[in-house]
Write a structure and sequence with these properties.
two-stranded antiparallel sheet; 7 strands; globular; alpha+beta; single chain
């Protein structure tokens, strides 16, 4: 656990060390050959969806706290705010391998770790697409031609990497007011 970033000040040190030193098994994709621990850092294969505002918008509050998805830094999203419907809004998705670039399951850094967006297309390789601070914030997997996503209602869908980018970005939003469905 020594390689992990420091825990927030309000998390007791002993508790943080024991929790952050391991990865819950459900945070690893069965198809990924990568270990869930790399050089002492615990990793995961899934990330929360911040919305459609990703690296194109830099790292400002627009991405961090005012984004359009379900996972924001300082805002609790209530069910009534999901006006597009819980069956039509991404909660989380797969991220490319467990070690690219950083997929710490417990750390929410913009465009990497456990926070991603629908700004770049599914399976945009690390280092490609629109990038901010060295990361593209893309969802993706080793599955041929797409990745798995969980909707807010708990349903899981395979999303093909050829999905229309506009539709994909709408699926990352909780209140787009646009007709949408996972194809």
């Amino acid at each position: 656990a020594a390689a992990n970033a420091a825990a927030p000040a309000d998390v007791p040190g002993a508790f943080a060390a024991s929790v952050f030193a391991q990865t819950p098994g459900t945070f690893g994709c069965p198809s990924s050959p990568k270990p869930l621990v790399n050089s002492g850092t615990t990793l995961g294969c899934y990330a929360m969806c911040q919305g459609h505002q990703g690296p194109t918008y830099g790292i400002a509050c627009q991405v961090k706290s005012l984004n359009t998805g379900m996972a924001l830094y300082s805002t609790r999203i209530k069910r009534k705010q999901i006006t597009d419907g819980t069956t039509k809004t991404f909660l989380l998705g797969e991220v490319e391998d467990c070690t690219m670039p950083n997929n710490r399951w417990w750390y929410g850094l913009r465009h990497q770790d456990s926070m991603r967006s629908t700004d770049n297309p599914v399976n945009t390789p690390p280092g490609a697409g629109v990038i901010a601070q060295g990361a593209n914030g893309a969802f993706g997997s080793r599955h041929p031609a797409g990745a798995m996503f969980a909707m807010v209602d708990g349903a899981v869908h395979f999303v093909d990497e050829s999905i229309d980018l506009t539709l994909y970005r709408f699926l990352g939003q909780r209140a787009s007011a646009q007709p949408k469905a996972v194809p």
